[in-house]
């Protein structure tokens, strides 16, 4: 298996989901997305779930994030529910599996990319 510094294929993700997370689906569709403000590797699965993968160095901080999301989800139906959180040791990655709502993808402008954001924020200072 690959380390987190190498590119992980969609086939690797699918095997991981079926083996480690027990994610069962005969017609599992996985699509990587590149929108958002985080450096996470993000994948939409069956248009119902969002898999966020991040460096294993961030697991403690991200566990706190998952716990916070779980608490907030009790108060609003617009907060995605955390389905599972864990560590993919073979690839040195942490992961968070969440419900996926289509409006998340549409809430980030298509013109956005991190370099534009960083360039604007540094010019404003």
Keywords:
125 residues, alpha+beta, Phosphorylase Kinase, domain 1, disordered C terminus
What is this structure, in a nutshell?
The chain has 125 residues and is of the alpha+beta class. It is built from four helices and five strands. The chain has helices spanning 10-19, 59-73, 102-106, 114-123, and strands spanning 30-33, 41-45, 49-55, 82-88, 93-99.
Can you describe what's shown?
The chain has 125 residues and is of the alpha+beta class. It has one domain: 2-Layer Sandwich (Phosphorylase Kinase, domain 1), CATH 3.30.200. Helix content is 32%, strand content 24%. The protein has helices spanning 10-19, 59-73, 102-106, 114-123, and strands at 30-33, 41-45, 49-55, 82-88, 93-99. It has a 5-stranded antiparallel sheet, sandwiched between helices. A hairpin with a 7-residue loop joins strand 1 and strand 2 (41-45).
């Amino acid at each position: 298996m690959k380390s987190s510094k190498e590119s992980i294929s969609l086939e690797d993700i699918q095997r991981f989901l079926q083996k480690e997370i027990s994610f069962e689906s005969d017609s599992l569709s996985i699509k990587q997305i590149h929108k958002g403000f985080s450096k996470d590797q993000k994948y939409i699965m069956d248009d119902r779930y969002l898999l966020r993968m991040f460096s294993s160095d961030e697991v403690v901080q991200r566990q706190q994030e998952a716990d916070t999301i779980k608490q907030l989800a009790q108060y609003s139906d617009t907060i995605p529910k955390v389905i599972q959180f864990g560590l993919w040791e073979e690839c040195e990655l942490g992961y968070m599996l969440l419900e996926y709502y289509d409006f998340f993808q549409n809430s980030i402008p298509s013109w956005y990319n991190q370099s534009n954001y960083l360039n604007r924020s540094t010019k404003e200072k």
